[in-house]
Amino acid sequence: MVDSAIKKSKALLFLLLMLCFAGDLRAVKEYDVVIYGGTSAGLAAAVQAKRLGRTVVVIEPTQRLGGLSSGGLGQTDIGNKAAIGGIAREFYQAVRRYYDQPSAWKWQDRREYKDDGQTRTGAGETAMWTFEPSAALKIFNDWVGEYGIEVAYGERLNRETGVSLTRSIPWRIMAIAMESGKVFRGRMFIDATYEGDLMAAAKVSYTVGREANAQYGETANGVQTQLAKSHQLFPGIDPYIKPGDPSSGLLPHIDPTGPGEEGGADKRVQAYCFRMCLTDHPDNRIPFAKPEGYDPLWYELLLRNFESGERRVPWINSAMPNRKSDTNNKHGVSTDFIGQNYDYPEASYAERERIVAQHRLYQQGLMWTLANHPRVPEAVRNEVARWGMTKDEFVEGHGWQEQIYVREARRMVSDYVMTQDNCQGKAVAKDPVALAAYTMDSHNQQRYVDAQGHVRNEGDVQIKGFPPYPISYKSIVPSARECANLLVPVCLSASHIAFGSIRMEPVFMVLGQSAATAAVQAMDEKKAVQDIDFERLRQRLTEDGQVLAWTLQPESTKAH
After folding, report:
1. CA 397, 401, 403, 405 torsion: positive or negative?
2. Closest CA relative to residue 135, chosen from 321, 8, 301
3. Which band of pLDDT confidence, cut at 50, 70 and 90, is reported for residue 557?
4. What is the DSSP letter of 396?
5. Dihedral over Cα of 139, 49, 73, 113: its sign
6. Mind giving me the DSSP string for 467-513?
7. Is 419 helix (H, G, I), strand (E, B) or coil?
8. Cross-strand bridge partners of residue 286
9. Beta bridge partner(s), residue 415
10. What fold, for 2-208+471-543?
């Protein structure tokens, strides 16, 4: 009752605030471009808006800029680096310049470092594609200083009543209010969050989860037990707490309602994790500790998987400079907390914090288990135990970051939906604002009990073999009958499986730059973002170094 009353009071306060400003929004400073979300996409958009001579503010709900690019994802996933131009490429060139400085190499001799994944830096290349979180953060902060970008830290959108809209169709956003009561007035708005909170609060159409294959004529969408071959459990694992006894209940995190109709739609979301920055340098290493709240049942499936024959270390431990890593999910039981994020996209801030905390607890417990549990093979224990969190990254969290890897949340539904046909070249967008250049990739989305009574993973899809392809401008703006001054470069309009190919940080940066360019052009032309002269936009993007067409031979791509 008390919580309900508090919520009602807050909602009334914000409603009164917005009604006050609705009468005279001139009381609030106006920006040409208001960007909600200081992700890599949001910062690229801000830089572009400033280069075009416009006023801009970046509203970042946390105290750290850069999203995943400064949040542990230092192993840049992109199948074809030549598809990345503009400000995005400038970022990776800045990474190269950063590591060309001897002072950047504190824990390792520069000559000892070799990046070993799909982002290997080619001979003579001016960019570098692997980096420490702190290096990315420095570059983003340097952009803020160089361009005089105003940043509002720690401001979260009031998602219930904080978006002031005009009434006519298509409507426009006039101003947005934060939970703190602070109001930002703008001519154009960009939602650069991973969750799409501004988009949703602005009443723009969106979806969550997987579409049925039949909806867009796809084959890799929906429930995918047949394609889920990679990152799979060993066969024959008993799913029950007491083996052979269904009455004892399923082990934690197995979905009793799964798997669902093959190729059918559901609201499941591909798994999240933290991209851990680890080190094996003894002077910079924090040993893995058993976390408070550790539940041994959470790891019983991991141990049974080892006892069924798994002998590999369940991670991708990609080398970063200074004897650090970007550590990601791999094999049947790993850092992905499968099935525990379904509510995250539309959850309240408090519930999201709880979900993130549970993911952190799971991953902390996983690392301790791998390094210490006697049922883990000795070779695995020894390899994991020599690593640990880093003392000089994410210092406030003792090596653990705040930014969880939101691989997918809301996705806008606009007048153009990117689909599997776009990925594989059967449909080609005629109004490109970026190239996507990655495998159609989805992480697992559930664990279920199969017809033989054994536990299996479902949802992993990895389909490659196609070159970079254009992303439609219409996919980053709402439908023509919806919001006229909003662009959405991250939670763009794409099916689940197409989004799995598009959703890479370099592409988000490219789309952020393109969104800002379009926003400025819409102001110049005094038009809705849906109605601007695309050929003029194409020309400007090309002049600014964006790559909008692919003419080179395809490179191989790897799963993410």
Report:
1. negative
2. 321
3. very low
4. G
5. negative
6. --EEEEGGGGS--TTS-SSEE-SSS-SB-HHHHHHH--HHHHHHHHH
7. coil
8. 389
9. none
10. FAD/NAD(P)-binding domain (3.50.50)
pLDDT tens digit string along 335-352? Answer: 999 999 999 999 999 999
Strand partners, 57: 34, 150
Helix (H, G, I), strand (E, B) or coil at 276: strand
Q: Under a CB-based contact definition with an 8 Å cutoff, are residues 220 and 66 in contact?
A: no
pLDDT digits (tens, 9 = 90+) for 409-458: 999 999 999 999 999 999 999 999 999 999 999 999 999 999 999 999 99
What pLDDT is recorded for position 555?
46
DSSP conformation class of 182: -
Cα–Cα dist 524/536, whole Å: 12
Q: How far is the C-alpha of 448 from the C-alpha of 457, rounded, in Å? A: 7
**Type of residue found at 189:** F
What backbone phi and psi angles, to 5 degrees, belong to 312? -90, 150
Nearest to 34 by CA among 22, 23, 45: 45
User: Helix or strand or coil: residue 382?
Assistant: helix
Domain boundaries along the sequence of the chain? 2-208+471-543
Tokens representing 98 are 């950063």
What pLDDT, in 10s, does the model give residues 369-380? 999 999 999 999
Dihedrals phi, psi of 324, to nearest 5 degrees = -115, 175
With H, G, I as helix, E, B as strand and everything else as coil, classify residue 131: coil
Burial readout 203-224 (b: 16 or more C-beta within 10 A, e: otherwise): ebebbbbbbebeebebebbbbb
pLDDT of residue 560: 47
User: Which residue type sits at 47?
Assistant: V
Q: What is the pLDDT of residues 166-185, one digit of tens each?
A: 999 999 999 999 999 999 99
Burial of 234 (0-12, 13-18, 19+ CB in 10 A): middle
User: How many angstroms from the chain centroid is the CA of residue 395?
Assistant: 22
pLDDT of residue 556: 41
